[in-house]
Amino acid sequence: MATTAQLFEEPFDADEYIERLAWRTPGGGSKGGAEAFDPKRLLDEFKCHIEELKQLDEKIQRKVEKLEQQCHREAKEFAHKVQDLQRSNQVAFQHFQELDEHISYVATKVCHLGDQLEGVNTPRQRAVEAQRLMTYFNEFLDGDLRSDVFNNPDKIKEAADIIQKLHLIAQELPFDRFADVKAKIASKYHDLERQLIQEFTAAQRRGEIGRMREVAAVLLHFKGYAHCVDVYIKQCQEGAYIRNDVFEDTAALCQKVNKQVGEVFSSPETVMAKLIQNIFENKLQAHVREKLDGTRHSDVEQYLRNLYDLYTRTTALATKLTEFNLGSDKHTFLSKLIKSIFSSYLESYIDIEREYLRTRGAMILQRYYDSKNHQKRSIGTGSIQELKERIRQRTNLPLGPSIDTHGETFLSPELVVNLLQETRHAFERCHKLSDPSDLPKNAFSIFLLLVEHLCVEHIDYALEIGLAAIPSSDAKNANLYFLDVVQQANSIFHLFDKQFNDQLMPLISSSPKLAECLHKKKEVIEQMEVKLDTGIDRTLNCMVGQMKHILTTEQKKTDFRPEDENNVMIQYTTACSKVCAYVSRQVDHVRKSMDGKNVDTVLTELGIRFHRLIHEHLQQFSYSSMGGMLAICDVAEYRRCAKDFRVPLVLQLFDTLHALCNLLVVAPDNLKQVCSGEHLTNLDRNLLHAFVQLRVDYRSARLGRHFS
Q1: How far apart are CA 407 and CA 480, in angstroms?
Q2: Is 21 exposed, middle or buried (0-12, 13-18, 19+ CB in 10 A)?
Q3: What is the mean pLDDT of the chain?
Q4: Other CB atoms within 10 A of residue 377 CB
Q5: Which residues contact 218 (CB under 8 A, 6 or more apart)?
Q6: To 5 degrees, how large is the angle CA 480–CA 483–CA 488?
Q7: SS3 for 391?
Q8: Residue 531 confidence (pLDDT) above 50
Q9: What's the distance, CA 706 to chain centroid?
């Protein structure tokens, strides 16, 4: 059986168990081992081993049954013990309840007895206290303070308590009979009060927080307690302002004192609030006056900067101070302190701001025009000369010579940046310094000054000068600078619009002033657009006039009726070459001067006028066969130039013109076929006929019959 037990090893595996049993049996291995494999012997061994396992199972089963019986017996015993314990616990709980009731009864009796004793003892204590006070009062009445409490400096706390009570009693006594004793008590009262304050001051200088707390507790019932707090506040500030930054020093001082007042005074929030009030009404107010009063009339720009900086730093300091316990409504308290310092300055702020911006803007403008040696012209005064100028601008009539600006646009990016920078600072100051109810109104007034200086006095003036400088359409070799004015005016207005959105809109977005601002901005834009459109229209007329001048001077009648039809070597005429070069330069100029959809709009208009000019120009000549071919080459070159416009309509117009020019060279029999082509089928028959009439063989070949 010992051998069988050895075969039961953990973890148990039945297959492994059989293998080990077979291996232990002589002749039972798979290879037979030293002996040959003997199945009969192995079978006998298995039968024998099965019998052993049965015996082992029976033995284990008997042991299990014995253990189960023992377990049941012990469970019954344990259950009996638990029942006994429960009964004992119930008895103990009943005893505890009885004891608790007895204790409550005794406690009630003790409390009742205590109340009775207190009822007897309190009048006795009061009587003792009254007798003690009467004894001390008699000493004051006799004028001889014999008690040690009044003569021993170490008993100043007890003396203070006595004298404070005597002082209250003396106030109730009639003056005529007790005037002398009342004066003596009052004198001693003030003397002790002074000694306590001196003791508090000395303890504060020594840094003895415990002694300060004791003295402050005694002084709490004296009239001089407020003076004690004042002394503490004054002494706290000694040596605290050693740097040049009063705001940083104040924040550091309050942080330091806030930790101390809670350990010294019974109402630290009151002391802390009084300290801050003292600092605001003395240190900060003196600092603000020193910074502002000296520059208010002498240097307005510095005054506004200082006002903004001081107000900003003061409000930031107040925000830090809200971390401390200053009472129930500390935000209102701090706001009142700030208002007491800055109210006189804030009331007149916006008037000073507007006057400064008005003066500063005028100075920036004048300084720029002085640098250009330019005397500003008066625009729109109603004089005859200006009436002529306005008529000339709108009709292109030669009412007098135009102004020569020598290529100067009279628009300055540096000037614009300066004006916008000044206005940005003004908006920032306005946001910080204006009362919330006045903020939209004040911001709008600043915006109007920006419109006046930037839009009217600078951009609008430059547009007027630019319009006056545009030459008439028949001027030769005219320099067209108005597009440069347009380019710079657009760039400037983008900056103006950005400031409008970034700086002004947040200040007025939720007020009725928003509608006024948007209306004013729209009005300014419309006024500028009218002048820009007028100037661009007249500039395009000048461009067309210059093209017309080139064609008039360079195009010869013999170009399209050469004497030797067989010896034409040029690809296109000189006039065409020069016109295309000029147009290409102007297209580039337009692209550089415009942005967005304005480029396509202006180029479309220029392309239409360019096409109209070429169309009318071609109708002034008669064409031989070779001349017609040359005209087609010219139009092809014009069409190549028109591609630079990148406008489908313009290209379509020149495609049609090119198709029309084919009528100048096509064989008479093919005219009808060509006229019904893609580009010509929708054109007026009279227009087609007019082009055919330009052929030199029109009469000889009887081409008119094709249109009859």
Answers
A1: 8
A2: middle
A3: 82
A4: 14
A5: 157, 160, 161, 196
A6: 135
A7: helix
A8: yes
A9: 76
Higher pLDDT, 119 or 596: 596
Q: What percent of the chain stands above pLDDT 90?
A: 37
Q: Which two tokens stand for residue 679?
A: 């580009």
Residue type, 41: R
pLDDT band at 32 (very low <50, low <70, confident <90, very high): very low
Asked if the model's pLDDT at residue 385 lies above 50, the reply is: no
Mean pLDDT (whole number) for 358-367: 94
Q: How confident is the model at residue 381 (pLDDT cuts 50, 70, 90)?
A: very low
Tokens of 56: 């082992």
Between CA 469 and CA 238 the distance in angstroms is 72
Q: What is the DSSP letter of 174?
A: -
Q: How distant, in Å, are the alpha carbons of 49, 545, 568, 631 from that of 572? A: 125, 21, 10, 8
Q: How far is Cα of residue 675 from the mean position of the Cα atoms in its chain?
A: 67
- Could you give the CA distance from residue 190 to residue 53 in angstroms, rounded to a whole number? 112
Cα gap 247→284, rounded to integer Å: 8
Instruction: Summarize pLDDT for 392-426 with one digit per residue, the tens.
Output: 545 555 444 556 666 788 889 999 999 999 999 99
- With 0-12 / 13-18 / 19 or more C-beta atoms within 10 angstroms meaning exposed / middle / buried, residue 98 is exposed
Two tokens, residue 440: 């939209």
Nearest one of 270, 162, 139 to 221, comparing CA atoms: 162
From residue 538, give the alpha-carbon distance in Å to each of 472, 474, 485, 602: 8, 11, 14, 12
- Spell out a b/e string for 121-135, using b for 16 or more CB atoms within 10 Å of the CB, else e: eeeeeeeeeeeeeee
**CA distances (Å), origin 440, targets 495, 505, 509:** 21, 10, 9
Name the nearest CA neighbour of 650 among 561, 587, 700.
587
Residues in CB range of 430: below 8 A, 6 or more apart: 350, 353, 439, 442, 443, 446, 507
Token pair for residue 351?
């008037």
Average pLDDT over residues 462-479: 81
Q: What is the pLDDT of residue 316?
A: 93
Mean pLDDT, residues 555-572 taken together: 74
**Rounded Cα–Cα distance for residues 277 and 280 (Å):** 5
Task: Let me know how long the chain is.
Answer: 708
| Whole-prediction pTM | 0.69
**Burial tier of 694 (Cβ tally within 10 Å: 0-12, 13-18, 19+):** buried
| Local structure of 300: helix, strand or coil | helix
CA 103, CA 633: separation in Å to the nearest integer? 130
pLDDT tens digits, 673-704? 888 777 787 888 888 888 888 888 877 656 55
Residue type present at position 456: V
Q: Considering just the CA atoms, what is the radius of gyration of the chain in Å?
A: 56
Distance CA 663, CA 171 (A): 130
Share of the chain above pLDDT 70, in %: 80
Is the pLDDT at 359 greater than 70, yes or no? yes
Q: Is 517 a residue whose pLDDT tops 90?
A: yes
Question: Which residues have a Cβ under 8 Å from the Cβ of 53 and sit 6 or more positions away?
Answer: 4
Nearest Cα residue to 551 out of 619, 645, 642, 608:
619
Please, are residues 438 and 448 in contact by the beta-carbon 8 Å criterion?
Answer: no
pLDDT confidence of residue 1: 45
451 vs 111, 359, 458, 459, 499, CA distance in Å?
87, 14, 10, 10, 12
The winner for highest mean pLDDT among 35-44, 126-135, 571-580 is: 571-580
